[in-house]
From TrEMBL:
<dbReference type="InterPro" id="IPR050155">
    <property type="entry name" value="HAD-like_hydrolase_sf"/>
</dbReference>
<protein>
    <submittedName>
        <fullName>Uncharacterized protein</fullName>
    </submittedName>
</protein>
<dbReference type="Pfam" id="PF13419">
    <property type="entry name" value="HAD_2"/>
</dbReference>
<dbReference type="InterPro" id="IPR041492">
    <property type="entry name" value="HAD_2"/>
</dbReference>
<dbReference type="InterPro" id="IPR023214">
    <property type="entry name" value="HAD_sf"/>
</dbReference>
<dbReference type="InterPro" id="IPR006439">
    <property type="entry name" value="HAD-SF_hydro_IA"/>
</dbReference>
<dbReference type="GO" id="GO:0008967">
    <property type="term" value="F:phosphoglycolate phosphatase activity"/>
</dbReference>
<dbReference type="GO" id="GO:0005829">
    <property type="term" value="C:cytosol"/>
</dbReference>
<dbReference type="InterPro" id="IPR036412">
    <property type="entry name" value="HAD-like_sf"/>
</dbReference>
<dbReference type="InterPro" id="IPR023198">
    <property type="entry name" value="PGP-like_dom2"/>
</dbReference>
<dbReference type="GO" id="GO:0006281">
    <property type="term" value="P:DNA repair"/>
</dbReference>
Length: 236
């Protein structure tokens, strides 16, 4: 039986805090954002709690560049269009990634993980709220891009948890949604998994075991017994 695994990226394949924690701190200090009159509320609306942690189900944790841009516009940081705000957000985080790539930490040898899954008959997909350029750059940094069969980003598809990207993965890889495991660190990933065979939660990102609400929760992607979960999970 042909199978598939669709991974989230940040917090799942890559450590969230090592790079994006600093990126968010720099973003909040960007000169373009100095007009904020209520920085506390602005940060909360983005998804940064008072203790500095990024909250799951928030624009910074699960949202797209457009979601973050909308918060900027709502706080009147941009007098132009939503599109111009989105362009600023996308360029800021891509530029930060390019300049701090050494801080991007894969949560294990991803190329080996993907190659092993493919040997077991799994197609490997990555579904992220990041841009396609950032996703490709991250996977290239991890020396794992060539092992990925499919990448879904908001540049191409509706963002998670819309199942359109899952269906596209299935079309390209000749799969049915009930052949696919969805792996992620947030409730948004687990909501997408409702359209797939099963959701696998990992505790390496922003989501807690309670928030992930799946019987399959592991410390990292390297700890998941993929074949066992596939065999034990019931097709919908």
């Amino acid at each position: 039986m042909r199978k598939g695994v669709l991974f989230d990226k940040d917090g799942t394949l890559f450590d969230f805090q090592s790079l994006w924690g600093k990126a968010i701190a720099d973003f909040l200090q960007a000169p373009e954002l100095q007009l904020v009159k209520q920085p506390g509320q602005f940060q909360l609306d983005l998804g940064v709690n008072d203790d500095g942690r990024v909250r799951s189900n928030s624009p910074l944790a699960d949202g797209t560049n457009a979601d973050i841009a909308l918060v900027l516009v709502q706080h009147r940081l941009f007098h132009g269009s939503l599109e111009s705000a989105e362009q600023f957000v996308a360029s800021f985080f891509l530029r930060f990634l390019q300049h701090h790539l050494s801080d991007l930490k894969p949560l294990g040898p991803l190329a080996d993980l993907f190659a092993g899954l493919q040997q077991d008959g799994f197609a490997v997909g990555v579904a992220t709220s990041d841009s396609l350029d950032a996703a490709r750059l991250s996977l290239t940094h991890a020396q794992a891009l060539s092992q990925v069969d499919f990448i879904a980003t908001p540049d191409q598809y509706p963002s998670k948890p819309d199942p359109a990207l899952l269906y596209a993965f299935c079309r390209e890889q000749n799969l049915h949604p009930t052949d696919v495991l969805v792996v992620g660190d947030s409730p948004v990933d687990m909501a997408l998994a409702q359209h797939a065979r099963a959701g696998i939660g990992v505790l390496s990102g922003v989501g807690t075991r309670t928030e992930l609400a799946t019987p399959y929760v592991y410390p990292t992607v390297m700890d998941v017994p993929y074949l066992t979960v596939f065999q034990e999970s019931s097709s919908k």
